[in-house]
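debug: dumping io for the single-chain case to check the tokenizer round-trip. Nothing else runs in this session.
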Amino acid sequence: MKQLLEYPRAVLAVLIALTSILLVPVTGYAAPPANLESRLTDVDGFLSSDATSEIQMILDQTLENGINLYVAFTDDFSGMDSTDWCVISARDSDVPDSAIVYAVATEARRYALCQGPTAEVSSGNVARAGEIAARELSAKPLDNPSVVNATRVLGDELVAKLKGDSETSSTGTTSSSSTSDPVGTLAFIVVIVIIFVLVAGISLAIRSRRLRKQRTLIEQTAQSRLDQAAVELMNADDEVRAARDDYAFARAQFGELKTEKFADALKEAEDLIARAFVIHKESETAASEGEKHNVANRITELTQQVKTILADHIEQFSALRALESNVEKSIADLRVRIDEATVQNKRAQEEIKSLKLTYSEQSLRSILNNPGQASKLLAAATDALDTAAEYVESDRSEALFHVNLAQRTFGQAMVQIQEVMDASNDLSQAGTRLTAAIASISSDINDVKRLASDDSAFVPLVDDARAAIAAGTAAKNGNGDPLAALSQLRTAEDALDTALDPLRDRETRETHTEHKLIQRFEEVDDAIQRADVYVSTNRGIASHRSRRLIAEAKRHRDDAARIYQEDSEKAFDLLREAKAEAEASIDDIFSGHHTYSSRDSGGIDIGSLILGGILFGGGSSGGSSSSSWGSSSGWGSSGGFSGGFSGGGWSSSGSGSF
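debug: decoded output
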């Protein structure tokens, strides 16, 4: 008996030690990534009022069945690991320990599940329920019905898992309740077990804290490296776009033959940039910090190749300019050309006014700012010439530098003006394409009359086709958006073709498919060109996402060109995806939500031109790394436990992508 009394003293000593450890402050986040004040949190306003009501009803029903489910929607996980975001938000928002939290990043297309220490369902079952619910999130872009269905499926699965866990627990309890031991022996065993558990807990707590610190340090290092590589990629992309502008002027100045090699180099640099954007996308699915480092290193390697390729030709053009330029004559000639360009820019302004009478601003948005940008560039070129004139007598090399800078700035202004003057031709083709699209879908309607006149399944498809024809006719007459009308015609025609193809003979199907493919390739090429122009003319605000979307659109377009003969349906899918990506690139810039640098929009001076990435004036902005466009976190594979942060009794149950 005396020995038994000694054990509580030992236990007390261990408890005191454990308390001292638990009272040691633990470094954490000052505020949770999201405040989960209620069972439904919509951080960025993704849900409509109807969807909010539906999900709230689902959560109430789930709670009535024993599952305290919290749901949080956010655009992304703020650069954090998805499971860390979930655990920290739940822990620091005082979510009940019995709850399960379901976090969904609607734009990043990731989800995470975490649970409190007294949650009724095992973590494995929670993870499996999350994988099943993720099947409802396939819509691109993600929409409200999808997340409502996913929440409903998750709730149903958790309730089912709860019943299964409860039955298992009940069976285990029944089988062990029939045995008993003498009181003294039981007390001794209990004390020994308590001591063992407490000692093991202390050891695990110390080890967990050490591993957590190491993991945080590794993550910070890997993410910082990835962020740095992303900035390098943005700067390299700016250099390539600036080189493209400068090449246009150099070709006019020196001729096609002398600039041919640089054209080849520029194409090679553009291909490398496209590859780098594709590789950067891999960071979104990087399963480890090592993979993040690997992605960052591959991006850096490609951007360095780009810089080397472009730098090899800088001296060539500098030598040409030094040899062929007469400073005084160059100043005089360029002043005349600036005056002519100023007149052309006024015509461009009038052209936009004229185009507005026929086309919607949505169709013209990629050129609306061009005259203003051209005016700033022409003013900057004039300032550079004035500075050059001041140095003509005292320092001819300095004067030549400013003449060259004026030439490059003038070249960029001419690109802006020419894009406006070309817009009328580009948009005028929309009328021709509307005519062709209306004729094509009208032919499909005739095929329905010929091949399936008695089939009622075609009635709604024909109604949609006629509505699209009406919209297309209105757009042709200046009473609608031609691009939107074209899209409506294409959608309606695709639906009709899908239904008609089994009824057509092989030759007719192949001829029809070939005709449609030619049209789609033309539309996609136009969409990519518009997006490319818009990014080039708005480099200061063009986000990483905008540029990557263009790179992906080009890649999908090229993939379609490679496979269209073997798999036309897949080619159509790729072309649809490419067009959507090109249009999304413009949407991203036009919304103004994802700028990656803050440059003065009040004017253009020599410093901003050089910092802006004028190729022969000193390269990219280099040290400017103020970035609000975010970075991709290294996430685990779809489904299952991803080993995220744990603390305050909360733990990760699973994560994945959709």
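debug: round-trip ok. The beta strands are 40-42, 69-74, 100-105, 110-115, 651-657.
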